[in-house]
Amino acid sequence: MSNRRHILNADAFDQLFDALRDAGYTTVGPTLHDGAIVYDALTCAADLPVGWIDVQEAGRYAVQDTGSGRYFDYTVGPHTWKRFLRPPREPLFEAIRSGAGVAFHAAAAPEETYALMGVRACDLAALGVLDAVLTGQTYVDTRYATRRSRAFVVAVQCARAGNTCFCVSMNTGPRASAGFDLALTELKDAGRHVFVVEVGSPRGATIAAALGLRDSTEEDWAAARAVSAATAANMGRQLDTTGLVSLLQQEAENPLWNDIAQRCLACANCTMVCPTCFCTTVEIDSDLEQTRASHTQVSDSCFHASFTQMHGGPPVRDTTSARYRQWLTHKLSTWHDQFGHSGCVGCGRCVTWCPVGIDLTAEAARLRASHEERA
Amino acid sequence: MSVYLPRPFVVDAVERETADTVTLVIRPQSGLAPAMKAGQFAMLSAFGTGEVPISVSRIARDRLHHTIRHVGEATRALTALKTGDSLGFRGPFGTAWPLAAAVGKDLLVLAGGLGLAPLRPVLDYVMNHRDRFARVSVLYGTREVSQVLFGRDHKAWRSLMSLRMTVDHDVRQPDCAPWSGQVGVITKLIPKATYDAQNTVAMVCGPEIMMRFSARDLEASGIERANIHVSLERNMKCAVGLCGHCQLSNFLVCRDGAVLSYDRVAPLLTVREL
Q: Are residues A308 and B235, on separate chains, in Cβ contact within 8 Å?
C-alpha cells in the first residue's frame, strides 16, 4: 500500500457497491423512507438519498431535497448501526423438555456479513463503545462479535454538521481517522464530483483494488481536510466535558433532575436512537404443551419501570427523575468508571428525537451551572 | 459457546425452610458441578420462566444449595420444583466474601432475613476451619420467628461461634415456645457482640436498608469501611455485564459485586432511587 489515498469518480460510485457485493457483503446504509433517512439494504449508489439533507433541532427532524446531486450531505437519522450488529431481537436459545430432563440449544450463529455504507465519525466511535461493552469484558456477546468482526465499514467524512451535532465536544469527529476499512470524503464543485478514498485496513485495500481508482494529489487531500475543518467549525451544539464525570455524580440529588422530569415522558426514544445504548432484557415464549421455550434477547431501556423491578415493591428507579438521571449520568459520567471512556459520542440523536426536545447538552450545562453556583 | 446458554441441572433434594422459602439442592445433569465461592451467585431458571440470580447457600461436594423465596413468577416456578426436576443454571458469577482477609481476625456476620442464605457458606467455612479465626459472631434478624432460616444448623453454629438473633415482631407461633430472644432491629445487636474493631472483618447481607444502617453502626463502632462488606442486590438479567440492568452508579453489580466493600458503596446507599 504505497498510496493509501485515492480518487474515485462519483459516476463510478456503483463500482464500490458491486465490489462489496462480489466480495459477499450485504450493503446497508442511508436511504430515504417515509420522510426520514434511515439505514436499510442498498444495491447501488442511486439508493442513497442523493441531493437530500436533513434539518434537525431539539425535538424536530425534516428532510429537504436540495438538488445538489451530493450523496452524503445529511448527517445521522433515527437509525443506528446497532440495528444490524446487535438487532433489537436476537434469539438466544431454546429449552426443550423431554421427560424429566431438559436440553438447551443455542441459537444458530448469525450468518449476515454486512458492509456498513456511510458510517459517520460519531457512529464509528459508537461502534468502538459497543465493542468495549460487548466484546471487551470478561464475557463476550458472541453474536455481536461475529457480526462486528465480519462487517466492512465504509466511513463518510461529514461535509455538513447538523444543528444537534456535537462530535467535536466529545472528541469523536467530524473526521474519522481510524476504525474504517474505507473512508470517503465527497468533493463536488463545478468542475468535478469525486470521492477521496482513504484505505484503513488490508480488507479495505482489497476492495479498493477492485475499483477504478487513481492516486490522489496533495490538493485533493487538502480539500478533503478542509471539508472536515469546515464541518468542525459548524457544530450545532457543544458540551463542556471538563470535570463532568465527578460533577454529575456529585449532583445526583440536584433538584434540576425533577425539573427535567416535568418534561420527560420516559418514552425511551433517546435510548432507542442512541448508538451506544446496549441494554437488553429477555423474552420467553413457550408452547402450550410446555415442551419448548424460546428465549429471545430484546432491546430494553432504563426508562422502563420494569428495568429495575425486583421482587415486590416499587422498582428501584420508580420516578422519571431517577430514570433520566440514570440515563444522562450513565452516558456522560459513570460509563467512564464502568468502561474507561464516555458513553456519549455527540451524534445528537437523543436531542433530535426527544418528542419534547430535551437537550442533553443543555441539561448537562444547567447542572454544571448549578454546581458551580454552589461551589 | 454463548454466555447466555444455561447448563441443565437436576434437583437432588428440596429442603423446605419456611412457608415461602425452599432450598434446592442441585447438581448438573451431567459432568461436575462448577466450583463456587461463598458469596457468588448463579442464574437459575425453571422451564419456560425467566432466570433469577440466586446466591449459593451451601457448597457441598458435587452439589450446590440455593435458597429461594417465592416472590414472583420465576421464583414461584423454582420453589415449586420437585426432586428429579430439571432447571437451567448459569454461573458462578460475581465476587465472593473475602474469607482470606478475615483469617486471623474477628469475624462479624450480620444477616437480615433471606440474607442469611448467601452467608451460610461463610458459616460452613468457619465450622470447618474454626481455628483460622479469632472471635466469630453471627447477628441474625428476621421479620418474625416463622421466617427464621436454617434452624437445623443453629445448634452446630452455637457450638463454635456466638449466634444472636432478633425478630422485628414477636408473633406467637402456635407450635413453638414463646420467643425468648431480642425483639427489634438488628442494629440493636451490634453493641452486644464482642469484637476488636481494629481487627475485625464484617460481612453484611440483607435488605438494603438493613445493610445501610448496619454498616453505619459498624463503622461508628470503629470498624474501617474497607473491612465492612455488603452484598448488593439489583435486577440482574444477564449476570455477565452485558445487559445493563444491574447498574448502581459506577458499578455493574453482577460484574463488580455483588459483594462490595462499604468504602466503595457507602455514598451510593444514601441516594434515593440510584
A: yes
pLDDT tens digits for range A326-335 = 999 999 999 9
Residue A1: per-residue pLDDT: 40
Q: If DSSP codes are grouped into helix, strand and coil, which group holds residue B127?
A: helix
What would the mean pLDDT of B67-85 be, rounded to a whole number? 96
Residue A2 has pLDDT above 60, yes or no: no
Nearest residue in A to B244, CA atom: A279
A168 and A22 in a common domain? yes
Number of alpha carbons in the 13 Å side-chain half-sphere of residue A368 = 15
Euclidean distance between CA atoms B268 and B253, whole angstroms: 12
The Cβ of residue A43 has, within 10 Å, a number of other Cβ atoms equal to 12
The closest of B54, B160, B168 to B114, measured between CA atoms, is B54
- Give B248-259 pLDDT, tens digit per residue: 999 999 999 999
Distance CA B70, CA B79 (A): 6
ipTM: 0.93
Strand order in the sheet with A36-41: A36-41, A26-33, A114-119, A152-156, A182-188, A193-199, A5-9, A214-215
Cβ pair B245:A322 closer than 8 A = no
Of A112, A345, A100, give the one whose Cα is nearest residue A239: A345
Q: State pLDDT tens for residues B93-126.
A: 999 999 999 999 999 999 999 999 999 999 999 9
Residues A18 and A159 in one domain: yes
**Band (B177; pLDDT cuts 50, 70, 90):** confident
A128 shares its domain with A218? yes
Is the dihedral angle over the CA atoms B157, B162, B166, B172 positive or is it negative? positive
Same domain membership, residue A282 and residue A206: no
Beta carbons of A281 and B237 less than 8 Å apart: yes
B7-93 is classed CATH 2.60.120.260: no
Query: Do the Cβ atoms of A365 and A239 come closer than 8 Å?
Result: yes
A233 touches chain B (CB under 8 A): no
Tell me A192's DSSP state.
-
Measured CA to CA in angstroms, residue B7 lies from A328, B10, B29, B46, B210 at distances of 37, 10, 8, 12, 34
Domain count for chain A: 2
Q: How would residue A3 be classed by pLDDT, with cut points 50, 70 and 90?
A: low
The minimal CB distance from B4 to the residues A93, A316, A334 is found for: A93
Q: Flag whether residue A101 sits within 8 Å of chain B, measured between CB atoms.
A: yes
Which secondary-structure segment (H or E) carries A324? Answer: helix A320-329
In whole angstroms, give the CA distance from residue A62 to residue A16: 29
CATH of B99-270, one of 3.40.50.300, 3.10.20.30, 2.30.30.90, 3.40.50.80: 3.40.50.80
- Convert the pLDDT of each residue in A90-144 to its tens digit: 999 999 998 879 999 999 999 999 999 999 999 999 999 999 999 999 999 999 9
How close, in Å, is residue A254 to chain B by CA atoms?
Answer: 11
CA distance linking residue B77 with residue B41, whole number of Å: 18
Of residues A102, A322, A334, nearest to B86 (C-beta):
A102
- Residue-averaged pLDDT of chain A: 96
Does B8 sit within 8 Å of A104, measured CB to CB? yes
When CB atoms are compared, the residue of A95, A142, A278 closest to B244 is A278
